[in-house]
Design a protein that fits this description.
Layout (H helix, E strand, L loop, with lengths): L2 E5 L2 E3 L5 E8 L4 E10 L6 E6 L5 E3 L7 E6 L4 E6 L8 E15 L2 E10 L3 E5 L2
């Protein structure tokens, strides 16, 4: 069983910074892409930033130049550095990972797809 555990959310004033962390735990798995999504009350869950195992990144237009995603592949951990925070950044932030789990069925070896979500961490930007 692979789990994602997030940390780092909280209350911050407009213009402030926060750093979110998300660590994957379990056994015998490999992760490809990791990402952060967010969901504000009454809204859908939207992609904030994503990063591949090779370090390629993608950002939502609303956070470009303010947020930075990074990862430590050896520790299966992804980070989101959030600077110049705005009230509209207030949301529950969710970590997401996809990858594979080596599996044996009889004598056949194959890779079972892995997709897992974290429990979410609340970020509130308010004065």
């Amino acid at each position: 069983q692979v789990q994602l555990v997030e940390s780092g959310g909280g209350l911050v004033q407009p213009g402030g910074s926060l750093r979110l962390s998300c660590a994957a735990s379990g056994s015998d798995f490999s992760i490809n892409a990791m990402a952060w999504y967010r969901q504000a009350p009454g809204n859908e869950r939207d992609l904030v930033a994503a990063i591949t195992s090779g370090g390629s990144t993608n950002y939502a237009d609303s956070v470009k130049g303010r947020f930075t995603i990074s990862r430590d592949n050896a520790k299966n951990t992804v980070f989101l550095q959030m600077n110049s925070l705005k009230p509209e950044d207030t949301a529950v932030y969710y970590c997401h990972a996809d990858g594979k789990i080596p599996t044996m069925t009889g004598l056949t070896a194959w890779n079972r797809p892995l997709e897992v979500w974290g429990q979410g961490t609340l970020v509130t930007v308010s004065s």
